[in-house]
Amino acid sequence: MPATPGQPTMDQATILEMRTLADYPPGLLGVVAGLFGRIIGASHGTDWQVDAMIAEGQAEFLRRFDPARDRVWVAMIAGVPHGALTIDGPRPESGRDAARLRFFILDEATRGRGLGREMVARAMAFCRDHGYARVYLTTLPGLDAARRLYEECGFRLIAHDDPPFCGSDYGEQTYEWRAP
Fold first, then answer.
1. Beta carbons within 10 angstroms of residue 31's beta carbon
2. CA 69/CA 87 separation, integer angstroms
3. Closest CA to 85 of 40, 129, 48, 137
């Protein structure tokens, strides 16, 4: 489909690596929470709780962002965030020995163009370069494109929760990657 005059095109898509909070693109937190609310709400029947959970989780992460162990990759089109992926590094001081891949979502317009694959590849390269022995993530069943990306990187399903997730009929799944 041709671009509407004045609208950004996918050839303007880039991936911003947020190395410090100075790199934070304005509005990112709201964009990511909104995408989760809209997309996961439509696909899995979640309610307002998913928006709140994602916004609260991102705010908590940003408040303790540590450039030595954390990273965020942001899908940008013409300078505007259209999705993200976060690596929340291990926090031994709080008892967490694994990194967590979090907040991975892309706007519908950016999908199928390799941005997600590139973001996951960069995130896993970051984890390997930092010597992280384990990385885990939580997701929902039915998000098959993301699941395929995770499995291609070596993630394996290790747990499935039964309770409903944010008002839906689905339980979260936990995937884990271990360094060879």
1. 20
2. 8
3. 137
Reduce the DSSP state of residue 162 to 3 states and report it: coil
Q: Are 76 and 82 in contact (CB under 8 A)?
A: yes
- Residue 75 CA from chain centroid, whole number: 11
pTM of the predicted model as reported, rounded to 2 decimal places: 0.89
Name the one residue in this structure whose structure tokens are 């031994």.
92
Mention every residue, 6+ apart, whose C-beta is less than 8 A from residue 130. 69, 89, 99
Q: Tens digits of per-residue pLDDT, 119-155?
A: 999 999 999 999 999 999 999 998 999 999 999 999 9
Helices 144-152 & 115-129 angle (0-180, nearest 10): 40
Beta strands in the chain (DSSP E): 13-18, 71-77, 80-88, 99-106, 134-139, 156-160, 173-178
Encoded amino acid at 82, one letter: H
Within 48-154, strands assigned E span 71-77, 80-88, 99-106, 134-139
Distance from the first to the final alpha carbon of the chain = 43
pLDDT at 2: 44
Phi, psi of 120 (to 5 degrees): -65, -40
